[in-house]
Amino acid sequence: MNIPQLYKEKDFLNHQFPTVKALNDPPTSYEGMLRCEKGEVKKLAERNVWPFTQYLEWQKFRMDLQGEYPVKPPLVTWITDISHPNIVPHVPGAVCVSVVGEGWKPNLRLVSVVNSLYYLLSDPNPNNVFNDPRCLEAAKICSKHGFPMMSAKEKKLSQADTARFNVIPLPSHSAEQSAKRDIVKFTILRPKRP
Which positions ≥6 away from 65 have C-beta within 8 Å? Predict the structure, then answer.
């Protein structure tokens, strides 16, 4: 790790997200708070629709930089209990967002990670869901309300279409558990128009 670069990143991150603080020196572990504050999620939460009500509450997360950072992405752990298709609380690495997975590039910075976490709260993706009961239930509700909004604009499902969901196994220390993969298929019917 490049220690001077770590301090530059810390300063830039604190400037952009004052609710994210380094836990150690040199800064390799962070805790932060964020919440969704606008958009369709906020409208649904104001109508008291679960799980969107949780996304407006302050959420706590942790980012730990691995020894190979920036070649490898930070390890993100969600600390606050939440029902979300892409987040399993208290499990290191159980936050499904491309920027901390396959989409990571060494030129990305911690601000990009925090932006992506915020995006998860404002536009949950029920098409890539963890194999966890709370995640699966939240995915059903999110799909019912048209999430992810970005994909919904690109492609509308007709009444006969079948949507395929990628069910992501939870991170595990056991090779046997990691090898198990479940495929869950949902059929989403559009309401009939009068």
Answer: 1, 6, 28, 29, 74, 75
Catalytically active residues are 96
What are the structure tokens assigned to 129, written together?
A: 């869901």
For the stretch 65-116, pLDDT in tens is 999 999 999 999 999 999 999 999 999 999 999 999 999 999 999 999 999 9
Maximum distance among all Cα pairs of the chain, rounded to whole angstroms: 63
pTM above 0.85, yes or no: no
Q: Is 71 left (phi over 0), alpha (psi -120 to 50) or beta?
A: alpha
Its CATH class, for the domain covering 3-186, is alpha beta
